[in-house]
Design goal:
6-stranded mixed beta sheet; 18 helices; 29% helix; globular; binds zinc ion
């Protein structure tokens, strides 16, 4: 028997393996778990070089699998002035002043995570000028749909008097035709984001799906790889060992492959081909080329892979762009803003499915979920049934008539508990008004979906929300019904943990090697500082990893 490199003892192991849900200890050799069992069963695997981690009777669980993140963008945001949760002009101004004192040499100031209403009045370039008059100052909304820029930034980008942009994108102008500072949607805000040190490269996989043009220089690549490393270190500190990315391009794959080649990739990452609505339908087949080079089948595929297409069918409820079956309660004729016709969407999904690719579709409104399920069903009709595991991202609303179709079609529900409207602390508006009383029982219907037998994977959508899975876990477990007659949607502890581990592995076609703690599986493990089973539901946000292990290597120690 091989000796262990790492022994975790004195633990309350939650294996997520139904055949053996609990254990006391586990042993790791190389990048594999060699034994999960009792103290006695692993004791004999100790050798001179073995590192023993005493878990202190706290929870040990599979490394967390984050099923929906934007890793590159999130990584860069860690290095910006983060305004999440700060409100009031004075509080924001003092955060800006403190940040500039701490980082005096910056040529451009980028702030992120602000809410639309954070200043108590519309955000304008004039307000931003009072805080930062001398250098470009750019403030991003947490939802990544809007940014605001001061006069220096607008001038440097050459857009003080606006510019013609693709439909849906806007440089907002005042009645004199001068920019107010508000920039709506990527084609508008990328013009000022180009002024930042990364030139906005971190969002290309989201906004255009294209690579940097002209190609990134060696220095730019080094800068961007460093951001990835920082973002992955942040993830490791939160117990995360795998991430499913939701934007992508060849450039991201190249950077992560370089990190992998250097032995510096400290989490498993999956990057999709992002099919934009600006592409010809047939271009989705480029995803098969990405898979040929980076698929999970290849050496290194357990650490970095591309086997999936990401696509958006609609927008979000807040801005009335989510696609509705029956219009918005206060705008009955407004069905939202689908990004593809049903015909084009069916054609794209059919093409991807024919190549054996998995598809993940962003669908928020009940009309979007219907259209996505219809396309997945049409692909089965055209190409035959296979183990496709197509996914739907978000599902904030679903028509009761569609509820059973996920299970029937083998579709995975990829949900973000932290965004739930019933989660204590989340403001109910504007979501309640967009959904309407009538449809509230089928909004954020996590448990109703689970009871249909559909597989449910959990995530954060970082940096739209903070990355911490413990925030998401608490949200999942503490959500309260939003109406009389609304079914409780709160999740049990074990279902919650399943959504952050085994379900993510299944979603990635890797349930045969990760997501549970089992002999022979990849050594992705997290040791927590609490016993999850005896932690009060409203205290889960305070749980911290003590040690994170990915691929047999310690990637974080608290
Ligand atoms: Zn997302």
């Amino acid at each position: 028997m091989t000796a262990a490199d790492i022994l975790i003892t004195n633990a309350r192991v939650l294996t997520m393996d139904p055949a053996r849900p609990k254990a006391e200890a586990l042993a790791i050799a190389g990048n594999r778990i060699i034994r999960v069992g009792s103290q006695d069963e692993v004791a004999g695997l100790k050798a001179g070089h073995t590192r023993v981690i005493d878990a202190g009777m706290k929870t040990v669980m599979p490394g967390i699998i984050e099923s929906h993140v934007h890793l590159f963008g999130g990584s860069v945001e860690l290095d910006t002035l983060m305004l999440n949760g700060i409100s009031g002009i004075d509080a924001i101004a003092s955060a800006v002043a403190d940040y500039r004192k701490a980082k005096p040499g910056e040529a451009v100031l980028l702030a992120t995570g602000i809410a639309h209403e954070a200043m108590g009045e519309p955000i304008t370039r004039q307000i931003l000028d009072r805080m930062v008059p001398d250098i470009p100052f750019i403030v991003g909304c947490f939802d990544h749909h809007t940014m605001w820029a001061n006069t220096k930034a607008l001038e440097a980008a050459g857009i003080m008097k606006g510019r013609a942009l693709p439909v849906g994108n806007e440089i907002v102008l005042d009645h004199n035709g001068i920019a107010t500072g508000e920039l709506r949607e990527p084609a508008a805000y990328m013009l000022v984001q180009a002024l930042t040190p990364t030139g906005g490269r971190e969002w290309l996989g989201m906004t255009t799906g294209e690579n940097p043009a002209p190609p990134a220089t060696a220095a730019q690549r080094a800068l961007d790889m460093n951001y990835f490393k920082q973002g992955i270190a942040h993830a490791a500190s939160l117990g995360i060992t795998s991430m499913h990315n939701m934007d992508g391009n060849w450039y991201q794959l190249e950077l992560l492959q370089s990190l992998l080649d250097r032995g510096e990739l400290n989490a498993r990452v999956e990057i999709p081909f992002h099919h934009k609505n600006t592409f010809e339908n047939a271009r989705v087949e480029e995803a098969a080329e990405m898979r040929a080079k980076y698929g999970r089948h290849r050496t290194g595929g357990d650490m970095l892979h591309c086997d999936r297409v990401k696509i958006f069918i609609d927008g979000v409820l807040e801005t009335y762009t989510a696609l509705m079956l029956e219009g918005y309660p206060d705008q009955r004729d407004n069905m939202g803003a689908p990004l593809f016709t049903a015909e084009d969407f069916n054609d794209i999904i059919r093409r991807a499915d024919r190549h054996g690719l998995q598809v993940a579709t962003h669908a928020i409104g009940d009309g979007a979920v219907r259209r996505t399920l219809d396309a997945y069903e049409a692909a089965i009709t055209a190409n035959g049934r296979r183990d496709s595991r197509h996914r739907i991202e978000h599902i904030e609303m679903i028509d009761p008539a569609d509820m059973l179709r996920l299970k029937e079609l083998g579709v995975i529900a990829s949900l973000q508990p932290i965004a739930g409207v019933g989660v204590p602390g989340n403001p109910p508006e504007p979501i309640l008004s967009r959904v309407g009383q009538e449809k509230l029982p089928y909004a954020y219907a996590w448990q109703t979906l689970r009871e249909t037998g559909a597989v449910i994977a959990f995530s954060s959508d970082w940096p739209v929300a903070p990355l911490s899975p413990f925030l998401g876990m608490q949200a999942a477990m503490t959500a309260v019904p939003m109406c009389e007659g609304c079914e409780p949607q709160a999740q049990s502890l074990m279902d919650t943990l399943h959504g952050f581990t085994a379900a993510g592995a299944y979603t990635e076609f890797m349930e045969d090697r990760k997501g549970t703690l089992k002999d022979g599986y990849l050594a992705d493990v997290v040791v927590l500082d609490a016993d999850m089973e005896s932690t009060a539901k409203d205290q889960v946000v305070n749980v911290r990893p003590q040690v994170t292990i990915c691929d047999g290597r310690v990637t974080f120690e608290g």
